[in-house]
Amino acid sequence: MPSLIRMFFLVLFLVFIFNPILIGMLFILFPFILILFSLLGVFRIYFTRDYSYSRSREFEFYKLSFLLMAKLLSILGTVTGEQLNYVNFIINSLNLSERGKSELYTIFHSAINKNNNADKILYTLKLGYFQHKDFFIWLFASLKEINRLSGYTNLEAEKFISYVGVFLELESDGYEAYKDINIKIVNPYSVLGLTYSASDDEVKKAYKSLVIKYHPDKFANDPVRQKDANDKFIKIQDAYEKICKERNMK
């Protein structure tokens, strides 16, 4: 504000030299100018606050989700490299700052050996994000993928995942529709026929092979097969783009 006042008096001095008549107008308008700048400051603070609030809620959801993933791994009893690669893939795919991703890594790894209260976590999720069913589906599918990577050998893990689905009321829309949810919505590697531990060269090789195999132009004389190939081609492209983003591949 002091700089604004100094600027005002500088303009006042210049105006006095060139046009004394405008001095009166400036004195009249000055209070309105101050009000305008104040309102602009309030708007800036308001919108910044809203954005920060939205981002913090998103991060809080992910934090709670990774606590549940850690809980599942503690139930499974063993943690495989493939499971950790999958969690690593999820975190790197999130639209968060590097600091936020690093914090999620720390939260997840430190929680694996802790006996976190799953009911408390689920209650917080349900209370705070009940309007975001898509968030719950993402979490549910992620838990199923972690369990799949273990080989579906732990009955307690299966019960835990089912309990999460029931607690978050996924069954209200027909739980059967979620029981066999397509894990590919969070696993682009499976679209390319790869595992999470695949090297960059293996990813590129698989992508090029599938693009050639399912390119729609190969089926120009067969509209039915061309449509099917086009659908697969789009999924392949989408999966490859997600992996490239996660790995910073070019």
Automatic annotation (TrEMBL):
The protein's name: DnaJ domain-containing protein
Top-level taxon: Bacteria
Family annotation (Pfam families): DnaJ
Domain J: 187-250
Entry keyword Chaperone: no
Coiled-coil boundaries: none
UniProt cross-references to InterPro entries, sorted A to Z: DjlA_DnaK_co-chaperone, DnaJ_domain, J_dom_sf
Keywords: Membrane, Transmembrane, Transmembrane helix
Membrane-spanning segments: 7-23, 29-47, 59-79
Matches recorded under Gene3D superfamilies: DnaJ domain (1.10.287.110)
